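Intended use. Records like the one below are meant for learning the mapping from a protein sequence to its folded structure. Do not use them to infer anything beyond what is encoded.
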Amino acid sequence: MFLTIYDLIFFSIIAFSAYGIWQHNNISLLARAAAKRHCAKEGVQLLDQNVILKRIGITKSHRSLFAIKRSYAFEFSSVGDYRYKGSIVMHGKLLAHIELAPFKTPL
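Structure written out for the chain above:
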């Protein structure tokens, strides 16, 4: 039995979609690891051990013509009683920016 051109297009779309989902998952894991390292460096605790995708788009890249820009949000705590917000921006697989909201430092 031979595959038609429509079958090849269909399987190609499925393969590219699966690859895109796999890449997105890997980049989310990189963002979470970067947020965890940054929180540890600042002496605060990453809460819930996760980052949440807030925005996705296309941006100009220094290494290629364009990159997918993903913006994530996370929460952290400095003294244990307040939740503060943080954000992380990834351009493709590269970390572009991490920002922590102003927080109380322990005495």
